[in-house]
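Thread: Modeling a multi-component assembly for a lab meeting

Hi all, long-time lurker, first post. My supervisor asked me to bring a structural picture of a complex we are working on to next week's group meeting, and I have zero experience with this. I have the sequence lines for every component (885 residues in total). Could someone generate the structure of the whole assembly? Inputs are pasted exactly as I received them:
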Amino acid sequence: MIRFIVRRLFSGLLVMLLVTVTVFFVTRKLTDPVRVMLPLSATQEDYDRLEASLGLDKPLLQQFRTFLGDVVQLDFGVSFWQGTDALELVLDRLPATFLLVAASMFLAIVVFIPLGIAASLRPGGWLDRVLVSISLFGLSMPQFWLGAMLIWVFSVRLGWLPTSGSGSTKHIILPAVTLASTSGGRIAQITRSSMIDQLNRPYVNTLRAKGMRPSWVLFRHVLRNAAVPITTLTAYEAAFALAGYAVIVETVFAWPGMGRLAIQAVNQRDIILLQAVVFVAASLIVATNILADILYKVIDPRVRLA
Amino acid sequence: MTSERSSDHNEGEISMRKRRGLLASLVAFSLLAVSCGGDDDADSSGGETTEPAADDDSGGDSDSGGDSDDGGETTEPAADDDSGGDSDDGGETTEPAADDDSGGDGSMLIVGTDAEPTTLDIMAIDDNGLHLSTWSINEPLADIALDGGVELFLAEEVPTIDPDDATRWNVKLREDVSFTDGEPFNADAVKANVDRLLDPSYTTTVLSEIGGLIGAEVVDEFNVVLVTEEPAPGLLNSLRKLRFLSPASFDNAAEVPIGTGPYMFVDWQKGQQLTIAANSDYWGAKKPEIGTIEIRFIPDTNTRVAAFEAGEINILVNPPDTQLAQFANLVEVPGGEVGATRLNTSTPPFDDVNFRQALNFAQDKRTLVDQLFGGAYPVSECQVTAPPAFGYNDSLTAYPYDPAKAEELLALVDIPDGFVVELNGTSAVYGSDREIQETMASYWRDIGLEVNVVFDEIDPYLDKIFNPEIPIVYAETDQAFNSFSRQIGLFLQAGGAVTALGEPEQTALDALVETSQQDPDPAAREAAMFEIADYACENALFVFMFIRADVAALDDGVEVIPSFGQFEKVYWNNVTLAS
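Re: Modeling a multi-component assembly
Sure thing. I ran the full set together rather than chain by chain. Output:
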């Protein structure tokens, strides 16, 4: 297991390095942050002065050498717009994103896995049909639209919950529900199909024939065997929520997380901040995948981790 | 067998307990990690919070000073003997002030805006999000008044050009004004701020907005000379961008701004909100009436509107311009941007004035504004300046919508076979820009032209706007004079984005542009700008569209006297809550 984790960490580091280098060259080739920062009427002298103060006047390869030397020390530089260490800015926002994703995954797991299990017991029954409908709704509804509708109903019309921001439990409810809608839909569907697959296996009939209690059969055997794909998907959803979906939800609900910072960096062409955001996002995805692999082994010791 | 099975079963049970224990540990660790990241505290979650290092509101009072009539009209900050307002340090959050009719001490106003500042150092970045928070903290020598004239702040009199050297501006400062940290505002403070701005190691985008400033010289405690590289008569209008921080606060200016203004910084919860409080020792005659102002950052427009409708905010900054009709109480800011498509006269058929005029006659600007913006904006009267900006020529009138006339003019033009008007437009650079440009294209198609619209994001757009090889580009001009005059030069002078007029027209136009930028006599500058506007209109050097005024939606009981140009440049002591 240790050897496996070390191998995965090493390959994860390579992935993160590759991503970081790619972002470095792509952002410098495709955009000019100096011009975006200056007013339209800026002179060439203004441009040269700002470019020099940001260190962008040096040849690209020289910038890259400096960057590589700094990034191994986790120094991404100072944000162009905020004048603060870029990695520090990202890490300051990370807890808020973790909180949001954790809340949404909690909802997705606590609500949708039991629903998926219940639906699998009577395929084609009314609960199964309800679940499929809810899953499809969650999967197909754009998060920005769902968020806007939830705000309209629960904040504007009913006044039960705040429209945006953070700072209390009430603030997290709508964003977590919005983020959970997509993940939960997929988790429910995979739970259902995985459980149905397991329930049709011969060992289940054997266990029942032995007189084992149905709940024992379901939770100690069937669910454990069905858990591997559910775990895979849940880890996938958590990783993508951290590094992707949360961006939309954070923007809609003005949640002060890493996703909003990423949007800000893109809009402002703050390539230093953007690099730090991408690096942290890649790290989270790598870490989540490793954690998922460890969980496989815990759930099913028969799994061989390559 | 039984004992083996029993033994196997026991080993299996132990192994299972271990796995359960490991799984439980992982879950517990995850929950612990998550719970460490957030709290249920009503005041903060996530984002960094900064507090001022010291809160010493010992700014002094001062007379409002006298006017000077050199260079346009002069106004003082509106005299008002209402001395309400306090220096509430924030802390607890109170309900929106719309529910509290009393105003004065303890009152709170909540503002919802889309743009969060990236720094609180007002001299580092020229950014509307920053201005909303700090325009009332760090004051200038003078600002642009609502009527386009000069409004004095930290300058006792209107700065004047040295008669012997047009690159030197004499500035007499107000006396008995202090920063809120107790430091005096004087000539040394002015020089320290200017030196900082000019320091090559200081990263700033604001310097380019301040008319070629290259230094400041102290004459005595309350007199200073501002020095420009070349004669810059437009410096007066750019002084609003030169704002003063306490020199003792330079090192921490990005987090804790300290100025002389009617409001003081209290707290910044990054990603969430920023709080400022009234400066009870403000020197100006117009005292702040609202105790605390909380500026909430809500980037999504729909969410911001919902917050306004739910009563969570009192002022909605940047409401959606396609839905302005739904707001009962709007404040419109004078001096907006002008939407105009610039044309280049070197490329056939754009070199034919009939073609350019046809493009103007074909546009139904009124209908476009009515349909897209609910009639919220006025049509441009054939110029790229908006009233009451300096140089606005009110003798000009817009090209009327006359497609028949447009077709008649087109018939006089030698249009090459297969010619396509390729309108270089923008995507998400200006509000509803795609819709505006598609509508313009449809009007041109109606008169028989082939039109293709290219939508660019900001980077490729910036390559095109001043590029003379690109014949037609949509733009919205900035009304800040210095930027505007330089933009006019970039458009209209020889080699510029618009013109290849031939002689003697180009030389004459170049001379007019130079006069508008450099003549020390404001009357001469204004006359030159009138002539430029007249020439540009008659020769249809642009397709003039509409004036996009900045607006904000106000809750009942909120009254705002805006500042020139953008709502974000509001002075919060000009905002009141009706009793």
